[in-house]
Design goal:
The complex is a heterodimer of chains A (423) and B (270). With 423 residues, chain A is of the alpha/beta class. Chain A has 16 helices and ten strands. Chain A folds into two domains: 211 residues, no CATH class; 111 residues, no CATH class. Helices cover 41% and strands 9% of the residues of chain A. In chain A, the strands form three sheets. A six-stranded parallel sheet of chain A has the order 3-4-5-6-7-8. A two-stranded antiparallel sheet of chain A has the order 1-2. In chain B, strand 1, helix 1 and strand 2 form a beta-alpha-beta unit. Chain B has two domains: 102 residues, no CATH class; 130 residues, no CATH class. Chain B is 45% helix and 14% strand. Classes of the chains: A alpha/beta (423), B alpha/beta (270).
Chain lengths: 423, 270
């Protein structure tokens, strides 16, 4: 089998992993090496599904000894199987990198023989790339649950970011669909990576040449929609992962019907819950950058996202006591909570009002989009002149805006809900 | 009513600013050498690198280094008549000090800032969207940006491929970036053709196209989202959207169609 065929099979098998970011570490160019890395990452192209392609995302092999129901690579699935050799993969990554096709390598793998054996093969590939090819760019490697901690540590010294997939949002779902994996086997390497990275950071402060272990931290992903957890459950889990395991990112992947296993939704009429995934990402941003807690976004009386409204607007409508926010006086944190104002907008407002008081005209010129924000702010104590609204009409207008954004493509199945609300 | 005509360089622009400040002139237009006849009296101060340098240093010393950078970067944007806006900012900066950078809701400042944001976005896009071909060991590529981002991209690629020989051609501004193992320069260049690639290069291109096709998930196709993140105007120089022939002969893009000409095509917002 030539490299082209292997690439097709192993890229196809890797594509359901959502993460393709190259962020979290900055490294300038060094003589004698090839490559740099930048903290904000870099997208090299966007595939037809609109996802960023930053790294060469492939499996080392798709030969798997596990049988997870939701996974295309489960051993009971009849697909062509293959594996790269370390040199083939290193050569491919370097040649793609030289042409600026990619920002680095994302190496994952099915479990070949055993977690230890698989991790050893991955280490061999990365070592070749880092030493012989002097590759200084970004590497994301998947830690294989169940591998020896010593091997995971070695992998982390070669990679920038490690990830362990939590796969499904609860232990019971895991038992049902991934009998070879357990909650403990997933969280153990996660804790190891957290502690290893913290230790490495501390040592680097003392010794400049201390080994760097996973300098870009770790991430994880879970499949949404294959099992019955509520949005609140998922978001609370996410919050815990950010706090307890200091993850850099949690990725959500709408379940794609790749199997007709009895414990999974029947593939015939199943549509991937893309809108739900979108709402989870929006809420994820609120957790990471906007100072919200999971409890604020969703609670017992309100365990799932409103399909018709983004979580920030939803929160704002449920908390009329917080508004209106006076843009000339309010804290940065309060301004951040206004629907329609993002981090850049809030920063500009805080900077610009040091020059002089802001008017609605001025806000628009700053680049603040008023479509949503107008209902929630005052300038110099006044609402936008001529604005008439009641809580009901604001809800209608905000959902109307949202509907325009999402479009009415068939893939957004939940949109059928809108047709009643958006008259 | 006065217009300035200059050679299009930053030093030339700063010489005009010097002249305007010295003589108290408020020009209504800036023209390039081939920019046609003006309706009003035209001043053409000869580019004086000494004056330009003194003024440039003064921007950092009398206002702030960040302000100096704002002006220098602003000059690379494709904002129509950016010179007028930058002149206004320089006057204000020298009079009011660095505070002027906070006046984000001022129409001139807002316009320059918006143009800068767009330029940085384009720069950020192109860091990823540039495609090189290995032609006899040298990496060669082409871009067609709206803003003059090549000087900003140069240091990025020179550091990234410090052991390689590189050539990156800007079709809009007719400029080429050359780098030989970390040492680089920018040169004006009227024309540029990639030329045919060898079998190995074609094989990697084919693998990349194949990878690009494979990685998309069929159940999630979303061309609108794709175009939002990667506007179509970038695609006519990207390997994954072109055949080898199109890549090598240079698929005509915007400037060939005459829609943007010298890259000053951004609409000026009133």
């Amino acid at each position: 089998m030539d490299v082209m065929e292997k690439l097709t099979i192993l890229a196809d098998a890797a594509k359901y992993d959502a993460a393709c970011t190259s962020s979290g570490v900055t490294r300038g160019g060094r003589a004698g090496t090839i490559g740099t890395a930048s903290n904000s990452g870099c997208c090299h192209t966007f595939s037809a599904d609109g996802r960023c392609v930053s790294l060469l995302k492939v499996l080392y092999t798709n030969c798997c000894c596990y049988d997870c129901a939701y996974c295309v690579n489960r051993r009971s699935n009849d697909v062509p199987r293959t594996a790269f050799t370390p040199r083939e993969l290193a050569e491919l990554a370097i040649q793609f990198y030289r042409r600026n096709y990619i920002e680095g390598l994302f190496l994952s793998s099915a479990v070949l023989k055993s977690p230890d054996y698989t991790t050893e093969r991955m280490i061999e590939t990365l070592r070749l790339l880092r030493t012989e090819y002097a590759f200084n760019g970004y590497i994301h490697a998947k830690a294989i649950p169940g591998a020896d901690p010593g091997l995971t540590y070695e992998l982390g010294l070669l990679a920038d970011r490690l990830s362990v997939n939590i796969e499904l949002p609860s232990e019971s779902s895991l038992r049902l669909l991934a009998p070879d994996k357990s909650r403990a086997s997933i969280f153990k390497p996660m804790a190891q990576i957290r502690d290893g990275a913290a230790q490495s950071k501390a040592e680097l402060k003392l010794y400049r040449h201390a080994p760097r272990f996973a300098p870009a931290g770790q991430s994880t992903q879970m499949i949404v929609g294959a099992t019955p957890e509520s949005d609140r459950h998922i978001l609370t889990l996410t919050e815990g992962l950010y706090k307890k395991y200091r993850l850099k990112r949690v990725f959500y992947s709408a379940y794609m019907p790749v199997s007709d296993h009895k414990n999974l939704p029947a593939p015939a009429h199943f549509k991937p819950p893309l809108l739900r995934e979108h709402r989870l990402y929006q809420a994820d941003w609120l957790l990471r950058f906007y100072g919200f807690t999971a409890q604020e976004i969703l609670d017992d009386s309100h365990p799932n996202f409103d399909a018709a409204l983004d979580p920030k607007s939803d929160w704002a409508l449920r908390h009329p006591e917080f508004f209106p926010v006076e843009v000339n006086r309010a804290d940065y944190e309060a301004i951040l909570r206004v629907p329609g104002i993002g981090m850049r907008g809030a920063e500009r407002i805080v900077a610009a009002r040091r020059y002089g008081p802001l008017s609605f005209e001025g806000l628009k010129r700053l680049g603040v989009v008023m479509k949503r924000a107008q209902y929630f702010i005052t300038c110099g104590g006044r609402m936008l002149p001529g604005l008439r609204c009641s809580p009901d009409s604001v809800y209608r207008r905000l959902t109307g805006l949202e509907q325009g954004l999402l479009g009415s493509g068939e893939s957004w199945q939940q949109l059928s809900l809108f047709e009643q609300g958006a008259g | 009513m006065t217009a300035y005509r200059y050679d299009g360089t930053f030093a030339g622009f700063l010489t005009c600013v010097w002249d305007a400040l010295e003589c108290g002139i408020e020009p209504v237009e800036f023209l390039l050498p081939d920019g046609g006849a003006a309706l009003w009296e035209t001043r053409e101060p000869a580019t004086d690198r000494g004056k330009a340098k003194r003024l440039y240093t003064a921007l950092a010393k009398r206002v702030s280094p960040a302000f100096q950078k704002l002006i220098a970067r602003g000059f690379l944007t494709c904002l129509p008549q950016k010179e007028l806006d930058l002149l206004v900012l320089i006057r204000r900066g020298l009079a009011e000090g660095d505070r002027v950078r906070l006046d984000l809701s001022n129409p001139v400042m807002a316009r320059v800032n918006l143009a800068l944001t767009k330029m940085w976005t384009e720069w950020d896009h192109l860091k990823g969207f540039v495609r090189f071909s290995d032609l006899d060991g040298a990496l060669v590529g082409e871009i067609e940006p709206k803003n003059r981002v090549l000087p900003l991209l140069a240091s990025h690629f020179a550091a990234r491929y410090s052991g390689e020989r590189l050539a990156l051609y800007d079709r809009t501004h007719h400029e080429v970036f050359l780098s030989d193992r970390g040492r680089w320069k920018l040169l004006p260049a009227e024309d540029f053709r990639m030329g045919p690639a060898g079998a190995q290069e074609r094989a990697f291109r084919a693998m990349w196209r194949n990878y690009y096709q494979t990685i998309a998930i069929e159940g999630r196709l979303n061309p609108k989202c794709q175009s939002t993140h990667m506007p179509k105007r970038y695609r006519h120089v990207m390997t994954e959207f072109l055949t080898d022939e199109e890549l090598e002969t240079g698929l005509p893009g915007r400037s060939a169609a005459g829609s943007l000409g010298d890259g000053r095509g951004n609409k000026r917002t009133p």
